[in-house]
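Request:
Um, any thoughts?
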Amino acid sequence: MQQHIDSESFWQFCLCHYSQAGVQPACLTFQDHYQGNINLALLLHWLDLHQLTLDPPHGYKALLDALTETDALLTPYRVLRKQLKPTITNEQYQQMLAFELLLERRQQHHLLTSLNLCPLSAHPCPDNLVTYGCHLNAPLSLLRQLQATT
């Protein structure tokens, strides 16, 4: 089964989901303490919500490979932004955040391009996000918070 996911729809889903109570801190904990990729986690959660399962060996590798280029930009930029925060104005910090969001969108585009080439199968109870989180030794309670479920 193949389903094309467009960048704008997924971006809007991410903005909406990320703004739900508890999701932002869960995402940041997942990123900072378990080295999880938030965009990948949100994409896997989106697949779970749509009852689609990613082909385990090939699909996960393809998505992780899609992160390589953009993570090389995002990770050091995020570190720099955090380091500079106490030394720059709020306006400068907001400009840095806006640029980081552009990098995030670029990363999502790479992920979706890769995903749209991967086989997906319908499954009533997919566990794409849990599979990814368990690989990183993230606790199930954190993943449920990221999903905005208890």
Notes: The chain has a mean pLDDT of 92. The radius of gyration is 15 Å. The chain has seven helices and two strands.
